[in-house]
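Budget justification note: compute hours in this period were largely spent on complex prediction jobs such as the one shown. Inputs:
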Amino acid sequence: MSDIIRRDPRAEWIMRNRLHPLHDQYMSQEEGGEVRGPSGLIRKFPHKVGFIGPNGIKRIDRLKGNSSAPKGKRSAAAQEVQLPLHKVENPDYYIMVVPDMVGGRLTGHDKDILGLAHKLIAEQGGNGAVVAVCFGEVKEEHFDTAGVDRVLHIEGEVFEGYAPEARVQALAKVEAQYTVKHWLFPDSIHGGCDLASRLAARLGERPATQAWQVNAEQTVSRGASASLDITRKTPKILMLLEECADAIDETRHEATPMTLDEVSVSAATIKDKGLMAVDPNAIPMAEAEFILSAGNGIHNWDQFHEAAKVLGATEGASRVAVDDGFMPRSRQVGATGTWVTARVYVAVGISGAIQHMQGIGQVDKVVAINTDAGCDMVKRAALSVIGDSEEILAELMKLAAEHKQTSLSDQAEENSNAA
Amino acid sequence: MPHKVISLISVGRHPQSGRSRRADQDSRAVELGLKLAGTDLDVVHAGNSEEPVLRQYAGMGLPKVTVLEQTESADALPALSSYLKAQQADIVLTGVRAESGESSGMMPYLLSEQLGWPIVARVADIVEIKDGEAQVLLALPRGQRRQVTVKLPFIASVDNAAQAARQSAFGPGLRAKMATQSGSTEDDSVRVNWSEAPAKARPKRLKVVKAKTAADRFKAATAKPQGGSGKVMKNETAQEKAQAIFDLLIEEKVIR
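Corresponding output:
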């Protein structure tokens, strides 16, 4: 084909003549493609740009269909983007990730490690699959978008609760049954570090602990209470710090279940006797899970302490309550006091000064009890209750007492059934 | 019959000044050992017997410290495991992680594998020992405790949640005896190939906006943090309000 652009005088003539029988056909042909002028420049036909909107006004979409806003008011529900599916068939090797699964769900730390596993596969090449090895109850529903190619859920009563010995036997079995290139564990206090150390001792491998920069050849890990960077060849078993890699966010994965042959677990030498009841006020406030915090709106302090006791909450206070002498300084939450990480924070009579809001920045769920519906704490809270705190705390204590009674009687019933 | 308790100690490192000191977790292990066995506690260090830090441990009220004499590059595992086997220990206490060297925290696990004893990790307290079984409290995140029972003999790594170590007295520390034995001579052959450097600060993770168009980038840059206020209850009765809060507490499992 020559590069010379040739005009078609007949076509131009037909397009100029709206009465020509072939006019419509030529015009529709023209619409999609670009029109070139006699000199080869692309010409725009201004009357053809844009479209007529629903109210009869001409609209021009200059984003070329890239706008994220939904098109037209009718389809207001945002369409979920379907990420491309990453498929692994007949993998040559596996990278086993043993996530913490705190509360049955993947933590941010776990997701980073899954991302790292994919990075390792990309660097090493070959057909590798990332496996999440889970024990006990699993509530996670988004294994696919977290980057899990295969899920190996090891079920059984012996693996429930605190059972590191049974679990490490199962992991050793996994090692024997599959070709495992790496074992990745979170270096965390949720049990990942313990399990990894047990497995490393069992397999006779030398692990890298507190690793934070990992590629296929080299691993940089912390040593000597985080004052040393140790560089070494990437070992088989790795315990990884938080933010060691980026989590998967651009692909979807299969998350197909895998099976493990029957594991014969020897009798446990460590017997789990369950969680202990801990005095909530003995827990350091920075790591308490459930905090009941009091501010200027509290008048009946005896009732507040009673409520904290009945609910089993750690006590906190705003600066005003501390300055007025109702609570000790060590209980102050906020910029000058403690920065808390609770999952649930109940703020009673706290309007929410900015210093206090900084202190509760990491809290998941805030519940506000306040008389002022317009205060900042109500804006931050997941659930706000407007009313007198004394009345509401009294009702809350009543409910908690009832709940305790019913759960006790349930237990007694269970015991009598068992007997 | 009193039980034979052995605490393993190492040289610590002060987090700010970097000077050597009593390691935090190891000194807690000595404290726990003193609680269980009194002055019959055997405290063992594998390394240099001239190390002044050992006197700081001895100052906690120990008449003697056993030192398995070996060089810094030698592997402590064979010396310790043969010593523990010979002593017929019932309980071996260590820290979770050493403050010097590789500080991988593998030592108690490797000992447990070699000796065939169970290991309990992150112990907060050993409550009582009865009929060849110990009742142990484990430290969990968020200040929670778990109770387990373990058959003797066992190895326990002591968490920061255990009772803090008592003050060290200088004079008794100086007067304590250093009982020296020969340790292992095998060098740690794997570690020779590693390169070590002072720790670099880890880069903070940046929030990367993956927007395809200018409009999206603009939106990401100017958008206020999500989460307009949640449910607000105004006109319900106090009982309904309390019920709503209580349901949330149950749902979040903070009330059991």
